[in-house]
């Protein structure tokens, strides 16, 4: 039976105008065991000024490791989203994120196919995604890093579409990072989808969706940046936990919510179920 651990995606600090280290400290105060930083390529003004939570891949990767260790935390993974079908945009970024993960001690790098180029066909996009993923797998395999493919855009909005991307490259480094909220908003059943990928699951974005959000957008979007507090929305977390217990590896629930108050309510709810 797999162990389940609770982590906080640093997106929870997005609206607080604070740096990565502030988010790590607050996650520890709330009782989370893990954090999931988001990394960006190059330099970004708001992050450099300390008003945003993302960490540059040009920084020393040990910055994230030291911050986690300072507050008694571990890294569940790195969030490195981008358009897999655009190797010029995402290829070097993803490979650098994998090398960074290996150095800072994050076992998983999470990504998705992102927004496609407007002039390519579906078949061309899958060829391009295969190229990006194969190059990334060449970097990930010898380092023992896993790539978590997440449902988040036009092709991964269905179980069949995510499976097609997953099967583009035959590599032990490639797995699934299921986002419960994205799966639900895309109009899918998140529980049957989780059952479908449980043997390939390497990480989970624990995202809940409020009733109001569900009523306004379900079936019309492929995902959303953050959700409400776990337990405040439509996702049945006891059911998610029961399925994840059957995973072949331990799983971190990386809570993806919008505020630290949501993060507080999320851990209280999930702890009660665990």
Q: What does this entry show, briefly?
A:
By secondary structure, this protein is an alpha/beta fold. It has a nine-stranded parallel beta sheet with strand order 5-2-1-11-10-9-8-7-6. It has helices at residues 20-30, 45-48, 62-70, 87-104, 122-140, 159-166, 180-185, 190-197, 211-217, 237-244, 260-273, and strands at 4-9, 34-36, 39-40, 55-56, 74-75, 78-83, 108-112, 146-149, 174-179, 201-206, 251-255.
Question: Which descriptors apply to this entry?
Answer:
nine-stranded parallel sheet; 11 strands; two-stranded parallel sheet; alpha/beta; 274 residues; TIM Barrel
What can you see in these coordinates?
- With 274 residues, the chain is of the alpha/beta class.
- It has a single domain (4-273), classed as TIM Barrel.
- The protein is 41% helix and 17% strand.
- The protein has helices spanning 20-30, 45-48, 62-70, 87-104, 122-140, 159-166, 180-185, 190-197, 211-217, 237-244, 260-273, and strands at residues 4-9, 34-36, 39-40, 55-56, 74-75, 78-83, 108-112, 146-149, 174-179, 201-206, 251-255.
- The strands form two sheets. The chain has a nine-stranded parallel β-sheet. A two-stranded parallel sheet has the order 3-4.
- Helix 1 runs parallel beside helix 3 and helix 4 runs parallel beside helix 5.
């Amino acid at each position: 039976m797999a162990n389940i651990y609770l982590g906080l995606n640093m997106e929870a600090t997005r609206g607080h105008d604070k740096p990565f280290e502030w988010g790590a400290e607050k996650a520890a105060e709330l009782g989370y065991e893990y954090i999931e930083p988001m990394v960006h390529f190059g330099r970004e003004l708001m992050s450099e000024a300390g008003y945003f939570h993302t960490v540059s891949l040009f920084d020393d990767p040990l910055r994230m490791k030291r911050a986690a260790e300072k507050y008694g935390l571990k890294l569940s993974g790195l969030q490195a989203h981008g358009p897999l079908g655009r190797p010029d945009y995402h290829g070097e970024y993803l490979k650098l994120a994998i090398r960074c993960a290996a150095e800072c001690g994050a076992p998983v790098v999470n990504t998705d196919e992102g927004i496609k180029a407007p002039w390519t066909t579906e078949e061309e996009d899958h060829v391009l995604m295969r190229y990006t993923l194969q190059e990334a797998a060449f970097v990930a395999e010898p380092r023992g890093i896993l790539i978590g493919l997440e449902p988040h855009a036009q092709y991964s909005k269905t179980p069949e579409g995510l499976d097609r991307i997953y099967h583009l490259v035959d590599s032990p480094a490639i797995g699934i990072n299921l986002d419960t909220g994205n799966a639900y908003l895309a109009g899918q059943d998140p529980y049957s989808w989780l059952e479908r990928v449980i043997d390939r699951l390497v990480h989970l974005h624990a995202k809940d969706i409020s009733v109001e959000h569900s009523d306004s957008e379900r079936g019309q979007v492929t995902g959303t940046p953050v959700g409400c507090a776990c337990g405040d929305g439509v996702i049945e977390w006891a059911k998610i936990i029961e399925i994840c217990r059957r995973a072949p590896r331990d799983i971190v629930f990386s809570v993806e919510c919008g505020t630290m108050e949501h993060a507080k309510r999320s851990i209280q709810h999930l702890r009660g179920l665990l």
